[in-house]
Amino acid sequence: MEISELRVNGSRLRATIEELARIGGTAGGGMHRLALTEEDKQARDLFIRWLKELGLKISIDEMGNIFGERKGRSPQKPMVLSGSHLDTQPKGGRFDGILGVTGALEALRTIHENRIDTERTIAIVDWTDEEGTRFSPAMLGSGVWAGHFERDWAYSRVDLGATSFGEALERIGYKGKAPARKWPVHAYYEFHIEQGPVLEKMGKRIGVPKGILGITWFDVYVEGEGNQAGPTPMNARKDALVAAAEMILKVNNLPAKMGGDLVATVGEIQNAPNSRNIIPDRVRFTVDIRSWEDLLKNKAVEAIKNEFSQIGEKRGCPVRIEMIWDISHTEFDSHLVERVGKVASRLGYSSHPMVSGAGHDAAYVCRVAPTAMIFVPSIGGRSHVEVENTRWEDCEAGANVLLHCLFQSANE
Ligand code: GLV
Ligand code: MN
Ligand code: MN
To answer: Between the chain's N and C termini, which has fewer beta carbons within 10 Å?
Structure first.
């Protein structure tokens, strides 16, 4: 068979995703598989079993990133890399990240069973802790690999139960020996669900992102004065939760105030002591601000910090801000982006140029290697929730685009 006629096996891809979905699957049909938990370990074990079945050379680095290499005819040439992540959000979906890992696996299975040799080595990767929900910031595995974060700093990040990333990695047995350090990569492709409404609305099959929005994360600590809910007069209160509520509304209004493509979210909150008849004295909440325009995002961050200190002052509640993460917008390799669109059209799939609002490991890999992504539609534009879904035909179509992009890059 001509290479150009080769297609992935859509039912095998579906079976692979469904098998992975049993590890940490929720009653609501989603996934709860936070980074470096027992569920993450089990998903990794299964992934490694599949890599072994293909006879790939497996390596695990100090960050727990897992690589499986299929040697090319010229292994000294920089390899082609593809993958994503197997960790999920709390009560997240079955496709986010997982499709990129299983799609690359399906592409390699197709190449393998057809005994096709490529000029360059092709490798699959599962990056550790892309979601950043248990250990922040996001993309710690790819960020260390690409040289953006220090390994030991990543190890020292703690979850809400005070377990460190390093301890959790060791506990699940995935602190590998290989240095978590970039090497020359000829091309990196990450296949992913869109996680937004655009492709479905446009009636298009393949999304071709030119890059990813910049992201800033910070944590806000508000301190109040605890007291009895009954006897304490309303005008004598320093209520940390009320101050936080006012701040959260300001975050929600920030995009309207700043304009452009800015989006802003408060997604996580802790209130102490969290009793119905005590005025709250400590609140922590997270802020996530994104835009393609780095300047606009940075201005918005400054503006909201000012609003927070004014609210804190007015309500007698001191505010402390801890910066967690800042990544400027990412522009993918124009040549590879163009290739994704051309391959889609050659395979008979409609495509649409776009920007990714979600963060991806591709953002860090892009800083050290030519990178592009392939998107497929998210049903109802829903993601990071249990009902996250993508049609199986679309998963298959995206995997075919990945397969042929891999061929082209691996034979250069
Ligand atoms: C990653 O999932 C993100 O927050 O966009
Ligand atoms: Mn993802
Ligand atoms: Mn995600």
So the answer is: N
Give the pTM: 0.97
d(CA 15, CA 8): 13
- Helix, strand, or coil (residue 208): strand
Q: At 319, phi and psi to the nearest 5?
A: -120, 135
Write the pLDDT tens digit of every residue in 371-385: 999 999 999 999 999
With beta carbons less than 8 A apart as the criterion, state whether 352 and 201 touch: no
**From the CB of 289, is ligand 1 less than 6 Å away?**
no
Q: For 313-333, what is the mean pLDDT?
A: 98
- Closest ligand 1 atom to the C-alpha of 139? 1
- Report the nearest atom of ligand 1 relative to the CA of 358: 5
DSSP code of residue 321: E
- Measured in whole angstroms, how far is the alpha carbon of residue 386 from the centre of its chain? 16
Cβ 196 under 6 angstroms from ligand 1: no
359 CB near ligand 1 (under 6 Å): yes
Q: Which atom of ligand 1 is nearest to the CA of 288?
A: 4
Q: Among candidates 217, 213, 216, 214, which has minimal Cα distance to 268?
A: 217
Residue 68, C-beta contacts closer than 8 angstroms, at least 6 positions apart: 51, 54, 56, 57, 58, 108, 123, 124, 125
The two beta strands, 282-291 and 263-265, are antiparallel
Cα of 386 vs centre of ligand 3, distance in Å, is 12
For 356, the 3-state DSSP assignment is strand
Does the beta carbon of 194 sit less than 6 angstroms from any atom of ligand 1? no
Report helix, strand or coil for 217. Answer: strand
Ligand 1 neighbour 358 (Cβ under 6 A): yes
Q: What's the Cα-to-Cα distance from 191 to each of 317, 399, 410, rounded to whole Å?
A: 45, 7, 17
Please provide residue 232's backbone torsions phi and psi, each rounded to the nearest 5 degrees: -80, 115
pLDDT at 1: 77
- What does the pLDDT look like over 51-78, one tens digit per residue? 999 999 999 999 999 999 999 999 999 9
Identify which of 409, 285, 401 has the alpha carbon closest to the alpha carbon of residue 6.
401
> Strands, DSSP E only, in 145-248?
185-193, 206-212, 214-223, 227-228
Name all domains of the chain by residue range, CATH numbers in brackets.
Answer: 3-213+329-410 (3.40.630.10), 215-327 (3.30.70.360)
